[in-house]
Amino acid sequence: MASARKTGTRLRLKEPENRATFQSALIEWFRQHGRDLPWRRTHDPYAVLVSEFMLQQTQVATVIDYYHRWLERFPTVEALAAADEADVLRMWEGLGYYARARNLHAAARRVRDEYGGRFPRELEKIAALPGVGRYTAGAVASFAFDLSAPIVEANTARVLARLIHLRIPIDTAPGQRALWAAAEELTPAAEARLYNSALMELGATVCRSRAPQCLLCPVLRYCAAAPHDPERLPIKKARKATIALTEDCAWIVHEGRLLLQQGVGSRWKGLWKLPPLADPLANGEEPLMQLAYPFTHYQVTLRVFPAPAPLVPGANQAWCPLEGLETVAMAAPHRRAVRQLNK
DNA sequence: AACACGGGGAT
DNA sequence: ATCCCAGTGTT
Description:
Blueprint: H1 2-7, H2 16-33, H3 45-55, H4 60-73, H5 77-81, H6 85-92, H7 99-115, H8 123-127, H9 134-145, H10 154-163, H11 173-186, H12 192-205, E1 243-251, E2 253-254, E3 257-262, E4 272-273, E5 289-295, E6 298-306, E7 317-321, H13 332-341
Parallel strand pairs: 1-6
Antiparallel strand pairs: 2-3, 3-4, 3-7, 5-6
Helix pairs in contact: 2-12, 3-4, 3-7, 3-9, 9-12, 10-12
The structure holds a DNA duplex.
């Protein structure tokens, strides 16, 4: 093994015997260098599911505190299934992508109602849970049950794209097909839990997006990108241009209560926010405050204007006592505005 | 295939 | 500013 590195021999992952040594080298490296993350201390499928939902498009450092608080509040799948959606959203507040919270809640109820509270151990049944796609299904199957299931997410996509020197964009159907095919070929029949953890960990700490640490890589001699410029991979489609827009909302306090409106569409559904102001007060009033927040490819300026109290709250609106504002789930930019104005 | 969906971290 | 992040569901 060491001689291969010294002599610079490139090993082709097309050969099954090389795949076996690749897997072993990766796992051995992980045993020595893998981080101690909270969700790696358990095989409880519910805890794994919680972590995987939270980690969708969300960085590890952001998730850790939420993960601990969540399991303290909803320690079991039964506890979550029995919870109210308002409490679920309140615990998720600030994490974003709130459909994840509603889907996790629905998944818990599905496990309770369809499987008698016993988590399904088949990949197909896991994948059928709401909010569980191909990645999350493979992650739960391998991390909780050590089933041999491939995974492709940000870290492993980058690692695989470099390993096979994939020169097409990974965020296209052909690119995804190639990555999943590679993941399937390389996932071992045994020890998939360790292997999948190791592949992700390699992408997170060594085979990084910027400044990959190829000199520290345990599988460098299998990497087809190594003779080229690994940092140029993976290729992605061009991004959309950022669009600036303005949102105006109302600050209406009456008898110690603030008027709030609940999101009903797809965005911030179930969360509370300041009521939107369609007409930015044609009288040319000054905003009480404004703040900026990014949203996908938009840069939004949120302006808050004082407004008179309505005789009755509109649809999906309610008065919230000023001292009770922290108990309701609120969209993050509105939370910022409310905290500042309530001081 | 394109889009919607949040929010924060890192450079 | 810009890119990125343990993605999924809808159109």
